[in-house]
Amino acid sequence: MTFPKNRSNSVRKIHKRTPKSGKTVHYKRIEKTGKHSDSITGKRLQAVSSKQGLPKSSRRPNRKFGGSLTSATASRVIIIASRVKEGSMKLEDVDIRMLPYVKRMLSSKK
How many CB atoms lie within 10 A of CB 68? Predict the structure, then answer.
């Protein structure tokens, strides 16, 4: 019987031939290869890691919207949120993709 850690779908089974017994099964964990991307523009995020064993503070930048938006997009969201707060721009005029982030900025300021 295999170990419980080897029974998941994130472990690849490699069948090997051996000289004496014929066949054995080796298990190799599959590495995650999905790249982290900006949720608004789709650009690849820098300084974001998926490695297991690292603390959460080491896996993403410690700034507003770190780990979900690039720094350029985050600065655009902050500028738009400040314009909405001071009244020079309406919330209806905000791009629909930026709207949840702008609302989060406005609710955290209060």
Answer: 17
- 36 burial type by CB count under 10 A (0-12 exposed, 13-18 middle, 19+ buried): middle
End-to-end Cα separation, the chain, in angstroms: 57
Which tens digits make up the pLDDT trace of 32-60?
767 889 999 999 998 888 777 888 888 88
CA distance 78 to 102: 7
What is residue 108's three-state secondary structure? helix
Count Cβ atoms below 10 Å from residue 69 Cβ, excluding itself. 22
What are the helix and strand counts (H, E) for the chain? Answer: 3, 2
| Whether 83 contacts 70, CB under 8 Å | no
35 close to 44: Cβ distance less than 8 angstroms: yes
pTM: 0.66
Q: Is 56 helix (H, G, I), strand (E, B) or coil?
A: helix
